[in-house]
Predict the 3D structure of the following.
Amino acid sequence: MAIRKIATVGHPVLREVTRALTKEELRSDAVQRFIDDLVETMRDAAGAGLAANQIYEPVRITAIEVAENPRYPYKPNYPLTILVNPVVTPTTDETFLNYEGCLSVPNLRGEVRRFTAVRVRAWDREGNDLDLEVKGLTAGTFQHEVDHLDGKVFLDRVEDTRSLTTWADFERFHKAAFVERAKALVAKHGS
Ligand code: NI
């Protein structure tokens, strides 16, 4: 396994619509090793998720894991999940304003509108069918990661650019209010 370099905003690979994999490709040693690297790189950088094109491979794979994350201490834990060829469908019209950050957008956070519940259909890393219903803040994480696979970054969805903030100023000026909203969301949706 290896820790890979993470692409930052401006690199064209983050704007690529990633390519779906066949089951044969997925089961190859090369792709299985790549998934190990994706997970190791995500954990090393303390990300809540990492999409393949963030480490320069424009294929439709993303990892998600929240385990007492220091970057997002208010996020409920979520077990390591590998999504291959994911499709996300909202299951509600209800939305919330998520204060997002991204390993590919250093030292910037901003408010992004996300659905509070989505259905996610994908394969796991072995090619088995996954069909998940994800709610609350966790639903925001899934929408953020699948956006990457469609060549989008959270900046594209920031409605009010006045919400943009460095991480230090998020702590000083925005965190308290957001954590209150996040807690209410988690209480309502259980995640
Ligand atoms: Ni991101």
About this structure: Residues 49 and 117 are 18 Å apart (CA to CA). The helical segments are 23-26, 29-44, 136-149, 167-189. The first strand starts at residue 49 and ends at 51.
